[in-house]
Design goal:
The chain is α+β, with helices and mostly antiparallel strands. The protein has nine helices and eleven strands. It has a six-stranded antiparallel sheet. The protein has a three-stranded antiparallel sheet with strand order 7-9-10. Strands 8-11 form a two-stranded antiparallel sheet. β2 and β3 form a beta hairpin.
Length: 316
């Protein structure tokens, strides 16, 4: 179902479109009685299986209360389908930031540890995300640019493909190809080390602005991932050895050679060091903050009116 600004759904009024994926659209909404702002994720692909997947995502994400995980606070009926109500992250994706900005090493360290902390809480809860990528990590500017303490905060989002460890059902092959661990791509049983591989690819991109597994041809890309053919880090920046070693271990083709969890990868990444607190230039913070408005305008142009309501689950 497609909503437009001004529409009211249960207790929420739609303000604008924030983002669009293959199976959902995310809106900024305001609680009509409290006046608080939230994000609402609404399915655009219906059916019982998709609704069950959204509910599973909501239940798990609602339990992962952490400063670097986007919390789900409610599930509501949206016409003939479902929507998840989440805290509003007044920012954009890490993917958009990486396309627009070159970050300092101190800023990269800062964001990397936040991302690892967010995924670590999922691993501690026995959950494998399965679709970690820059597009599923949100970043927002906190504080007023140019004032002390103003910074960028990262939050892990979109737990739609989660796998609960101990579930005897082998998950289907799903995810984003260039961030999928070889064993995940091959349909083998996975654990948190599949996320560690994806985190390695994310951190590689964060450091270099380039992809760990470049190219767009699916067959060639799958071959590179399965063979562990990781791109070389560009030589234009001197990267601390601790980061290079952490990346090499995380992106190992063999799961046994990777850190076991995101928390273990964070320890390898730090290697006993104490990172410097980044100083975010005010002009860069303003540009990053402005990315949300640009993104919203672009997405609004691509969202079209649904020609028919999606099918619903029995009994709805």
């Amino acid at each position: 179902m497609i909503l437009t600004p001004g529409d009211t759904v249960e207790r929420y009024r739609v303000v604008r479109v924030l983002g669009q994926g293959g199976m959902s659209v995310v809106y900024e909404v305001v609680h009509t009685r409290l006046g608080t702002s939230h994000a609402l994720k609404v399915l655009t692909v219906g059916g019982p299986a998709m609704e069950q997947r959204l509910l599973s995502e909501g239940r798990i994400q609602a339990q992962l209360r952490h400063p670097h995980v986007v919390p789900v606070t409610d599930v509501i009926d949206v016409g003939e389908t479902l929507g998840l109500v989440m805290d509003l992250v007044a920012g954009t994706s890490l993917a958009a930031v990486l396309r627009a900005e070159r970050l300092s090493l101190e800023a990269i360290d800062h964001l990397a540890l936040q991302i690892l902390d967010g995924v670590a809480v999922a691993h501690e809860a026995g959950v494998v995300h399965r679709d970690l990528k820059p597009g599923n990590i949100l970043v927002e500017v906190v504080g007023e640019p140019g004032t002390p303490g103003a910074a960028v905060v990262a939050k892990v989002a979109d737990f739609g493909l989660v796998h609960v460890l101990g579930d005897p059902t082998r998950p289907t092959v799903a995810g984003t190809l260039r961030y999928m661990a070889p064993e995940q791509l091959l349909g083998a049983r996975i654990d948190a080390r599949a996320d560690v591989f994806a985190l390695g690819a994310v951190l590689f991109e964060l450091l270099s602005g380039q992809r760990a597994f470049p190219g767009d041809d699916p067959e060639a890309l799958a071959h590179r991932v399965k063979r562990g053919q990781v791109a070389e880090l560009p030589r234009e920046r001197v990267v601390p050895g601790r980061m290079v070693r952490a990346l090499r271990q995380a992106l190992s083709r063999d799961p046994a050679k990777r850190p076991a969890t995101a928390a273990a990868l964070a320890r390898r990444w730090l290697d006993g060091s104490v990172p410097a607190e980044p100083v975010w230039p005010a002009v860069q913070l303003r540009r990053i903050r402005g990315l949300l408005d640009t993104q919203s305008a672009e997405v609004t142009q691509t969202v079209t009116v649904s020609v028919s309501p999606p099918p619903t689950s029995p009994g709805r």
